[in-house]
Amino acid sequence: MCLAVPGKVITKIDMLGTVDISGVTRQVSLILLPEAEIGDYVLVHAGFAIQKIDEEEAQKTLELFKELGLYAEHNG
Known about the structure:
Elements (H helix, E strand, L loop, with lengths): L4 E9 L2 E6 L2 E6 L11 E5 L2 E6 L1 H14 L8
């Protein structure tokens, strides 16, 4: 099963971005999504941003992950 997690792009330098996923930051490759900009929400899978999504969809997905026990607050 493949799972992509939504995050908000908070920095971008060339094709490397930092995303915020519920308060946890991760560096991801933007090579597959070069149009991603700071402030965009993206789906992250295996260290790559693979698709842009809107903020509402990102928040809904994170809430569902929490309900299913797939994601704990602050990765704890």
